[in-house]
Amino acid sequence: MKLSVLFQIALKSIWGKKLRSILTIGGVVVGIGAIVFLVSVGYGLQNLIVEKATGLDALRIIDVSTVKSQIIRLDEDSIGRFSSFENVDNVQVVVNVPGRVKVGGSTTDTVVFGAPVEYLDLSGVKVDQGSVYENDSSNAIINSAALNVIGIKPEQYQTFLGKEVNIELVLLGELIATNDSPEEQTVNSEVTLTIGGIINDDNTPYIFVPLKVLTDQGIHNYSQAKVRVKDNSQLANVRDTIESLGFSTKSASDTVQQIDQIFSIFRIVVSGFGAIGLVVASLGMFNTLTVSLLERTREIGLMKALGAKRRDIFALFLFEALIISGIGGILGVIFGYALGETGNYVLNTLAVATGNEPVDIFQTPVVFVIGLFLFSLLVGFLTGLYPSRRARGLNPLDALRFE
């Protein structure tokens, strides 16, 4: 018997028991829809955290530092080598030294960062008041934590711009050392700069100064470098190359991998909750096919008496299971996606109404949707396997005598 004919018979059988079929398909719709809805939350939160917390550009940046070594130094030669790598488009450096800020009669210990303005751009450093310095200027950027310690109140920040600040520097020997003089001692130095910008950060006191200020004091080595690759797909290769030279590296991609692992577990857990509904739906489908088998026992006997083969009977019931699971899978995906889009609309409406930026919490990848639909067909196949095999094994004479 042609498969197309068996398919039509299966459709008519399902259509003949409308209420039972609707309830059975509805169970599959709820189960699949629940999985789509719950898992879309996991994908949405994952993408939101990755994009908002790290930023797309941060995924292309490698932080390079040195280990304790007298041979490997992060100097101009190292920076030149990094810049020569084929997939690298920008390399910037920073020097951090202990220091002490003096303003009038007040002082506070702080960390002094010597960095070009390009490094500030790569690091996402933003000035809240004032402006960023030029690389050849004598301006500095100080954070609010340092100002608070020396007694400058928030309402006085604006008046503090343009004032001179004295900075005592502790230049560590490892930053001054060269290949010709590897055993340099720590040196104290002092510079006077003008405050040109303020960063609202109340955590740890620090101050940014142009890199030239520290190199003029005898600094030859850098504390850290940021290496930006042209494409984040090349980040791992560039990182391996840098590490092969003896340097230590970090990247926002490490955080992203940890986030991916956490949300992979989260998606498995929430999928498990949704799968409970799908298990219940598969039991309903199994019950429907079993009842259908009992109701059509004489019909099966008649079909066999008229020449239908065992594989035709098997295919007929299997088609019914696949049709129910297929329709339920499609409608379930649509149902779950619609719930997610409705949730996004409600949340975005509330966000705009309260003056916040709209975001999509529910995101459903196409690959996941296709995979879930195929999974629903697999569930239908496994559910219909036993009734199909039982129908195939019926004896025609016993089936015709069945009441």
Supply the key terms.
403 residues, alpha+beta, 2 domains, 6-stranded mixed β-barrel, 14 helices, 56% helix, 18% strand, elongated
Question: Would you give an account of this structure?
Answer:
With 403 residues, this protein is α+β, with helices and mostly antiparallel strands. Helices cover 56% and strands 18% of the residues. The protein folds into 2 domains: 3-54 and 257-401, no CATH class; 67-246, no CATH class. It has helices spanning 3-16, 18-54, 76-83, 117-123, 144-149, 157-160, 173-176, 211-215, 235-244, 252-295, 297-305, 310-353, 366-392, 396-401; strands spanning 61-65, 88-103, 106-114, 129-130, 139-143, 164-171, 187-199, 206-209, 224-229, 248-251. Strand 2 (88-103) and strand 3 form a beta hairpin. The two termini are 27 Å apart. 33% of the residues are buried.
List the helices and strands and how they pair.
Layout: H1 3-16, H2 18-54, E1 61-65, H3 76-83, E2 88-103, E3 106-114, H4 117-123, E4 129-130, E5 139-143, H5 144-149, H6 157-160, E6 164-171, H7 173-176, E7 187-199, E8 206-209, H8 211-215, E9 224-229, H9 235-244, E10 248-251, H10 252-295, H11 297-305, H12 310-353, H13 366-392, H14 396-401
Parallel strand pairs: 3-8, 5-7
Antiparallel strand pairs: 1-9, 1-10, 2-3, 2-6, 2-9, 4-7, 5-8, 6-7
Helix pairs in contact: 1-12, 2-10, 2-12, 10-12, 10-13, 12-13
